[in-house]
Design brief:
Radius of gyration: 18 Å
CATH architecture of the largest domain: Orthogonal Bundle
Number of domains: 2
Number of helices: 7
Order of helices and strands: HHHHHEHEH
Structural class: mainly alpha
CATH topology of the largest domain: SP0561-like
Strand order of the largest sheet: 1-2
Distance between the termini: 33 Å
Helix content: 40-55%
């Protein structure tokens, strides 16, 4: 299913297949899907989820999901793209957002574990 085929009648499962970051985006803006009291079922439609959270402008939600997806695409890189970049000698800033324990178990050489100080640096100084 392509992004232009998502409608108010699309199920949340369909939406998450097209927009993998949709749950994060919905939670950050509308407080939908982050806990048991604001969750949804994969078979719920976007319209049903909106109504249960008193959101009546589903077109606005769809536009926000599309914008969020486009932003995600701009900052994410596939494993294949990363391998190609490394092989070509490109300079890459790779940020690891996992826990310190996870970072100790397995990591990509050169990846920087995001700490509070690094997060502040990224927000304040990085383009």
């Amino acid at each position: 299913m392509e992004t232009d085929r998502i409608t108010k009648d699309s199920t949340m499962q369909e939406i998450l297949e097209v927009f993998p970051g949709a749950q994060r985006a919905l939670f950050s803006r509308y407080h939908i899907g982050g806990c048991s009291s604001c969750g949804f079922q994969p078979t719920d439609t976007l319209e049903q989820v909106g109504r249960s959270h008193n959101i009546w402008d589903v077109a606005e939600v769809l536009a926000y999901l599309q914008q969020s997806h486009e932003r995600d695409q701009g900052v994410q890189i596939s494993p294949e793209e990363l391998a190609t970049a490394f092989q070509s000698g490109q300079t890459i800033q790779l940020l690891d957002v996992r826990t310190p324990e996870e970072h100790k178990i397995a990591r990509i050489e050169g990846a920087r574990l995001v700490t509070e100080a690094l997060a502040r640096e990224v927000v304040e100084r990085w383009p």
